[in-house]
Amino acid sequence: MLFNNITIIDENFNVRPNMYVGVKDKKIAFIGDSKPxxxxxxxxxxxxRLLMSAFYNCHAHTPMTLLRGYGENLSLQNWLxxxxxxxxxxxxxxxxxRGTLLGIAESxxxxxxxxxxxxxFCSNIAQAFTETGVKANIGRAILSFTDEELRETERFRxxxxxxxxxxxxxxxxxKIDMSLHSExxxxxxTVRQLAEYTKxxxxxxxxxxxxxxxxxxxxxxxxxxxxSSYLAEHxxxxxxxxxxxCVHIEDEDIAIFKEKGVTVASxxxxxxxxxxxxxxxxxxxAAGVNVAIGTDGCASNNSLxxxxxxxxxxxxxxxxxAEPAASSPRDTLYAATRAGxxxxxxxxxxxxxxGFAADLIVFDLSKPxxxxxxxxxxxxxxxxxxxxxxxxxxxxAVLYKDGEYxxxxxxxxxxxAADATAAILxxxxx
Length: 430
Known about the structure:
By secondary structure, the protein is of the alpha/beta class. The protein has 15 helices and 18 strands. Strands 1, 2, 3, 4, 5, 15, 16, 17 and 18 form a 9-stranded mixed β-sheet that branches. Strands 6, 7, 8, 9, 10, 11, 12, 13 and 14 form a 9-stranded parallel β-sheet that branches. Strand 2 (15-24) and strand 3 form a beta hairpin. The longest helix is centred in the last third of the chain and has 19 residues, at 410-428. It is globular and about 65 Å long. The termini are far apart.
């Protein structure tokens, strides 16, 4: 495809009008200010359109679309124990598959082409991502409340099978991470053994860290260390890792993240909704820590609207720290694109750059909220709506265009998810 005479946000996050971008063999093959001689196939009219890198959601539980709005106005522990865990106890592989498809449809609609996901029934999650043409780093959450050997647990066997069957499949779109749910749902033996296995096979790690003050302080009481220090001591960060939330971290934790190359996935909307607090993104960024953006699950967000997430990500820190220059629009776009791609080990993704994967989105610049355009980067972060995205492309394949899904039967997906939810609610209310 050739994007013809279109405005772009380039690899340096600068706005460049009247550009030509050619996509061939899943890659961005040409960027220039004059029309190329090569034939790139279909021509896309770029008038009143903006082309930029697509988004990378670095912390999610995609099947939790089925729990959207199910537990409201509750603290995290109460929310988990009275609403989420009972509902999840009724999930099966088919329900997870249906919920994942619904989440993928929502993600594509909002420009997300790759998701770092942690959940259960992960083979069904991988199947859904594979079928729909998007990318995912998928991890089966490991929890352990006993002293048994990790390799003897059913959860670990699921991880092994998942890695064997799906890692780097679908031409590299699907990657399998290891996932420790958290410090407070495991024990030192499990952490240590999972860390060793992750390093042994060369996988990445995904873990919840210091999401609430209670979690953070209880770890210090149990182990005499912060969760980050405890996890690092047991080797969890010896593999490339993404630490989700990090709301209540301390200076020593930031130093660990910098030393170990840990990415922090900030989830501002979920953290606000559950009254967990605020991740200190400016301090992390100043220390040189890679900071990406996550939505968390729809049960605590309640959407996968990445435009909304970016706006919260940027504005929240200005208000909390009384610093209008905190998290500039360009910083925010970097976190939503390149930082996220790097956290997933996708080194040739997340920038509109020749030779990079053609993971791209198009905005409609004719919308009233996108005008005037004193600064288009600011407009994307502060003025845009999720509905302003009119094309989503992953690896050069158009997945969504002008309201039409190319790989998803949206009516069937919505209906199937509703049926799965109704069946679970019926069981819970018996």
